[in-house]
Amino acid sequence: MVKFLIGVAPLALIASGVSAQTLPAQAVVAGVATDPVAADPTPVDGEQAGASGDVVVLGFGQSRQVQTITAADLGRLTPGTSPLKAISKLPGVNFQASDPFGAYEWSTRISLRGFNQNQLGFTLDGVPLGDMSYGPTNGLHISRAIISENLAATSVAQGAGALGTASTSNLGGTIQFTSRAPSDIAGLAASGTYGSNDTIRAFVRADSGDLGGGLKGTISYAYLTTDKWKGFGSQRQHQANAKLVKDFGDRGSITGFVNFSDRRENDYQDLSYDIIRRRGLYNDNITNDYPLAVRLAKIANNQAAAAAYQRANGSLTGFSAPYAGVGLPYPQNVTLDDGYYDAAGLRRDYLGGIIFDAKLTDSLSLTSTSYYHHNKGQGSWITPYSPTMLGAPNADGTPITNPAPLSFRTTEYSLDRAGTIAKLGLTTGANRLELTGWYESNTLHQARRLYGMTDTATPNRDARDFQKNPMSTAWNGKYDTETLQYSVGDTLDIGQLTINAGWKGMRVRNQANLLAGTLARGKIQSQDWFLPQVGAVLHLGNQAEVFASYTENMRAFIAAATAPPFSISQAAFNAVANTVRPEKSKTAEGGVRYRTGGLQLSAVGYYIDFSDRLLTYSIGTAIQGLPPTLNNVGGVESYGAEVSAFYRLTPAFSALASYSYNHATYQQTVRDGSGNLLAEKGRYVVDTPQNMVKGELVYDDSRFFGRVGADYMSKRYFTYLNDQSVAGRVLVDASIGYRFPEAWGGFAIEGSVTNLTDKRYISTIGSGGFTATDPNGTAQTLLAGAPRQWFVTLKKGF
Asked: Where would I find the TonB-dependent receptor plug domain in this sequence (predicted)?
């Protein structure tokens, strides 16, 4: 309740101060502030994106590389598809997921120009989503924040986001999502999908239309259930969104929204090259065979006991295994880590807020966005490395009398954050001055616990349930983050030349209070009050323009048990707390845009200096026994180019193509305290393909419609020393459909196929982290991509 009041109190003060004045609207989508990245996604000349909903590729008028896709484009993908997958066609965007929807969070990865997901910024209607990490420590994933059908636009700034973006992680660009406004006309939209792996997805949305005086609302619900495409288990999600808008015409608007999500998904097993060689890409957890999981754990215990006995006695003579009857060797071609019994991720989120837009005078405007977010989460793993103790509590609290050599390990989250973003804009002639401020208070409770399992034919706990009655707690902490950010930006439009310049400053205070365990506690701060940004656009008539920009950014530390600097020991934290610096970046880019008739072209080049890269490793020799610590290990140099083209050949037929080149290398050689090489100057950055080529053909004559898209990326390294990589691949998706006449009910039917050529490939890399080297191919940090999948959807009201 306190955090909710923090979020809404500034709104109440603003509203009371202007209640007697007229409330003007901004040039916004669904009540979102007029940020140059998140604003109306149509081209600046006012032409509509096209009858079939073009991708707005170029971002004319922007001094940065900015590209936007529309709701119509997202609507061409299988319902429930992540908007991150929809933007994967844009240049510089590297998106990976092991499921056909791109929504399975453990596998979902997106990077821009070599910066990984937790080095980017994400917002929804201006509300910060944090870095969208798998562990909900400072935000939530877009696949939970809103139903995909309720998005109006997604904008990508590949190099640097808008100055006032509410993010403390956007070293390398931002992705800003804009939600759909309630319709002025009452209506009902619905869709139902069935497809591979018994996928069932349903969506329904009701719009009230204008109820009088500009009051209108919308409410929607979506349900998804699908079996895993390999192994056993399912992924399930309930979502509900509601929005209410009071529109004062050209005087302003007030928007309130509440979004809910409950997502529970069984995990796929992380793979290594060794596992793939022995068992193939279809190897997975053994969730269908609990007795086998218990047996493998017993064998592991027997092997450990035998090794200890032999060390003590020199032979196994007289050895008695703790689990008689199961022996010492594993079954043929199986090891303990090939597949665990089960693992899962559970996330329950509530996100709500109020957006207030007003024009205080003819030249002065104000936007305020206040929000509150609550998350309850759990990541689980049935581990064979921690046996259940005799007498440990069962799920119902009774003591376990037949303990299994397994236990149920969780990472548990409880997140509460609230904040307010305010923007004041002053326009005087050709000049516009913008001041923004953002404050957020975030409290995270995080714990690692073990729960008891029974030695029975069936398991006594379900990985998709929130657990009760723990056996032990490894660590438990309370992590507080206070964020304060401001920006000052000025835009001068002097005819053919537009110049914008400004700076932002931020201070992020982190505090860890450990209730149990040996992880670090204490305080740390990230602060820089001057991070400049400057850009210019030169208009060469109505068809072409040249643009350039320079930006500096900082990524603040995170307060969590699962991320540095608090994921290390107390001694290690004390050693670096006053010396370690946050990661920073300097980005320069420039390019040209051109359009004529149905053709749009864009070309951009960029250079990035990424400094103070953070890496955790031991600073002493192994014999010293010093704990791993967090270290600044130098920088990364990146340069590259992106070219994109959109061509509307006919009113019904369009083509999109893009190519991007990225050269990102480490600039320092790094060794640990024992002299082991961890990184080497000149090696390529992990998970960063040098070449990506994307293409798409779309046909839509208002009756028949279809698309086919192809996505190529070159090889990606998953070790810092580049001794292991995954090969390049081409993926093809396609869809085809037909809209029936209104006299027949106005339905549309669509069939879609992902991975049309049934390519066998590795999708996500780094799921288990990155290592310096992997000479034997044993690093379990790879996830297989889904094979060909098909879906059929019936729609009405879209």
From this structure: 64-173
Structure tokens at 280: 């193939």
Task: Note the pLDDT of residue 619.
Answer: 58
Classified as helix, coil or strand, 488 is: strand
3-state class of 275 per DSSP? helix
The identity of residue 450, as a single letter, is L
Which CATH number does the domain housing residue 783 bear? 2.40.170.20
Q: What are phi and psi of 746, to 5 degrees?
A: 70, 25
Task: Based on the fold, state whether residues 318 and 397 are members of the same structural domain.
Answer: no
Peptide bond into 43 cis (omega under 30): no
The gap between the terminal CA atoms of the chain, to the nearest Å, is 38
Alpha-carbon distance values, 327 to 299, 322, 474 (Å): 6, 10, 31
Q: pLDDT digits over 196-213, tens only?
A: 999 999 999 999 999 999
Q: Which of 43-47, 312-316, 640-644, 791-795 is the least confident region?
A: 43-47
* 252 contacts 18 by C-beta, under 8 angstroms: no
Q: Are residues 271 and 233 in the same domain?
A: yes
Closest CA to 553 of 32, 110, 105, 113: 113
CA distance 601 to 385: 56
For residue 648, give the nearest of 136, 50, 239 by alpha carbon.
50
Please count the structural domains in the chain: 2
pLDDT-wise least confident of 48-62, 78-92, 266-280, 417-431? 48-62
CB burial of residue 197 (10 Å; 0-12, 13-18, 19+): middle
Residues 389, 449: contact at Cβ < 8 Å? no
Q: pLDDT tens digits, residue range 324-348? A: 989 999 988 888 999 999 999 999 9
Angle at 427 between CA 492 and CA 10, to 5 degrees: 120
Residue with tokens 């069935």, as numbered in its chain = 194
770 close to 781: Cβ distance less than 8 angstroms: yes
Q: Which domain holds residue 319?
A: 288-338
Calculate mean pLDDT across residues 553-576: 93
Separation of alpha carbons 128 and 177, rounded Å: 10
Is 29 contained in some domain? no
Q: How many residues does the chain have?
A: 798
CB neighbours (10 Å) of residue 774? 18
Helix or strand holding residue 435 (H, E): strand 431-454
Task: Give the per-residue pLDDT at 46.
Answer: 31
DSSP output for 296-339 = HHHHHHHHHHHHHHHHHHSS-TT---SSTTS-SSPSTT--TTS-
Rg, Å, the chain Cα set: 27
- In a domain, residue 113? The reply is yes
Sign of CA dihedral 93, 96, 100, 101: negative
Is the model's pLDDT at 76 over the cut of 90? no
What's the average model confidence in pLDDT over 472-476? Answer: 96
Secondary structure E strands in 186-272 = 187-195, 199-207, 215-227, 234-247, 252-266
Are 488 and 505 in contact by the 8 Å Cβ rule? The answer is: no
Note the pLDDT of residue 52: 38
The segment with the largest mean pLDDT, out of 71-85, 224-238, 326-340, is 224-238
The 10s digit of each residue's pLDDT in 294-304 is: 999 999 999 99
Whether residues 187 and 78 fall in one domain: yes
DSSP 13: H
Residues 574-592 have a mean pLDDT of 94
CA distance linking residue 377 with residue 464, whole number of Å: 11
**Lowest mean pLDDT segment, chosen from 256-270, 501-515, 667-681, 748-762:** 667-681
Does residue 244 sit in the same domain as residue 96? yes
Residue 479's CB is within 10 A of a number of other CB atoms, namely 24
pTM, whole model, 2 decimals?
Answer: 0.91
Reported confidence tier of residue 566, pLDDT bands at 50, 70, 90: very high
| Same-domain pairing of 609 and 694 | yes
- Contact (Cβ atoms closer than 8 angstroms) between residue 546 and residue 163: no
CA angle 229-233-237, nearest 5°? 90
